[in-house]
Design goal:
The structure is a single chain. The strands form two sheets. Strands 4-3-5 form a three-stranded parallel β-sheet, with helices on one face. The chain is built from five helices and five strands. It is 44% helix and 23% strand. β1 and β2 form a beta hairpin. It is globular, with a radius of gyration of 17 Å. With 133 residues, it is α/β, with parallel strands linked by helices. The longest helix is centred in the middle third of the chain and has 17 residues.
Length: 133
């Protein structure tokens, strides 16, 4: 049995990559999120169309907050929310400042100052560091 491969495509931007993916595979799974509540584990599928819808919704919210064109730092564990924020900012909202989740608190603060970030989007595990900033 011979495998069928997709033809290679070149993309200039992440926005182009996402829009093309939605056009070609709107209802295919882009992400599978594992959710755990008590001892029950469930899985939630996010399609490419859902992902683009979420990117647009977050982008609209960030623009309404006055963050268009601003430096937006993001820190957190690998997650759908992190990927969503990354793609959203990179698709035209502002300048992304990705911060390594393993940085010590003083280096996070240094990076925020050095990058002149206007805002930080963070996971709840970083609330003490951000509140101390």
């Amino acid at each position: 049995m011979r495998k069928k491969y997709l033809e290679k495509q070149d993309f200039k931007t992440l926005k182009e990559l996402i829009r093309t993916s939605v056009q070609k595979f709107p209802n295919e799974k882009a992400f599978i999120i594992k959710e755990k509540k008590d001892n029950e584990i469930t899985y939630k599928n996010i399609t490419y169309k859902d992902f683009l819808d979420d990117i647009n919704a977050l982008g609209t919210a960030l623009i309404k907050l006055g963050l268009k064109g601003k430096r937006i730092a993001v820190i957190g564990p690998n997650s759908y929310e992190w990927a969503l924020t990354y793609f959203c900012v990179q698709c035209g909202i502002g300048v992304l400042v990705p911060l390594d989740k393993g940085l010590p608190a003083d280096e996070i603060k240094y990076s925020l100052n050095k990058s002149k970030s206007d805002v930080i989007i963070f996971d709840e595990e970083y609330v003490d560091i951000v509140n101390d900033f």
